[in-house]
Batch of 2 targets.
Target 1
Amino acid sequence: MTSPSGIIDLRSDTITVPTPAMREAMARAEVGDDVFGDDPTVKRLEERTAELLGKEAAVFVPSGTMGNQIAIRAHTEPGDEILVEANAHIYYYEAGAPAALSGVMCRCLPGDRGVFTAAALEAALRPPDQHFPRSRLVCLENTHNRGGGKVWPLEELQSVAATARHHELRLHLDGARLWNAAVASGIPEREYAALFDSVNVCFSKGLGAPIGSAVVGTREFIARCRRFRKMLGGAMRQVGIIAAGALYALDHHRDRLAEDHANARRLAEGLAALPGVELRPGEVETNIVLFRVRRLKAADLAAQLEPRGVRVLALGPDRIRAVTHLNVSAADIEHALAAMAPLLR
Ligand SMILES: *Cc1c(COP(=O)(O)O)cnc(C)c1O
């Protein structure tokens, strides 16, 4: 469905607006004070999310950043080291929160579009010694945002997880787009989640709900997360109104992600055929299309597309990101390509 604004907004899958049916579900939601545990809609969402991911419990949070950060806080002690891929959202886009909120150091591992090897992890581990920070937690991201929506191959995940377990490290998955990974690979979310102690999932990206994420894990771990959520001011009251949007999205918007992936592929193929574009269509596995432009600056392309009713995100001097989502139709992709072609040829 095209955006109600008529603009083809490919900057992010966070820009979707709730559908009329989702708004209806939100308006009708049964609510209560969730800090007292009285909101039945939040309870349903947390139970449903935990069940989908095969974990004991879940906690609803206002944003993915808060979900990741309370999980890091709950897994670590100040002075610990967490191991993340160099382009991870946790490291790159969360305002230095691991240092500020958990007092942990980030050790960055080199990756290929967000995917690193068990050998890279092994090489970065610190032996127990009073001089060293304690290697404590490994964080992975699936799909990988800055990696262009890359899906972690399951065998690679298994091998990294086995290495982490061997060294008694904990494992957290930033699964903001785990729904996309599951649809693209045909591997259920819970099969990925089984390798991790905790998983963060977002309802406001591809699923198209306006607000919210959840962290899942053991009952004990989630109780600890609830305490840190409270500490950060993320415990909310009659929040069933927004949880209802997330529940609606889980029921109605997961399977349709395949449409977003098909639209992204079509966009990638169209762009790759233009001489001014550098893009490998084979690398587009989900809903994110990253490409480089040769004839003009990325910021200039974005600016020139704006009056043509198309929005993209300039990520660097020559790098552009275009993301497909609930408010982009197959016809919108053809329009976007038609708008871009004269500028990139
Ligand atoms: C969007 C995103 C998040 C969370 O973002 P919020 O804007 O805080 O909800 C976390 N991880 C990844 C990989 C993301 O893409």
Target 2
Amino acid sequence: MASTKLFGLFAFFLLLLSAAVAEDDHRFPLGEEKRTHLRFYLHDILGGPEPTTLVVATAKTTSKSPTLFGTVVMADDPLTEGPEPTSKLVGRAQGLYASASKREVALLMAMNFAFVGGEYNGSSLAILGRNGVFSGVGEMPVVGGSGRFRLAQGYALARTHRSDATSGDATVEYNVYVVHH
Ligand SMILES: *[C@@H]1O[C@H](CO)[C@@H](O)[C@H](O)[C@H]1NC(C)=O
């Protein structure tokens, strides 16, 4: 008898809970699903008078790693419409990349693309994944976004457009494909 009552009470609370959840549903703003392809160029500047990157950690090893394994870099790289650094600024790539492979140059990327231009001004995309720098085209997952890119999911293809062997500076073409709301 007592267990029946207890079950009844439990069911009642479950009902209350589901009612509360259901009531919340229509207050959740969710636009139409959209598909967007963005193309821009990232400028990663390691040296010179105005570097856009900063080495924030290096591995404490006795033998030097050929892949700089363990090195963590913080970046605030400009994103431009065209490949020239003087081209129109569309956003900034702000975040971390780290050498995550002992055998080849492969990066762990944890970046936010913060857009400043036009209709995407104030919106951002979050990138989290592996970037095999010398594998031709690197592919990284887009794991989320904000503003115009709410609930974003997709992928980013990175291709080195130009790189300077001496300074290490690089211009990388990004093609980003996202589904968002
Ligand atoms: C982007 O948004 C900021 C803040 O709302 C504003 O100050 C700025 O003028 C905008 N830039 C462009 C290019 O629309």
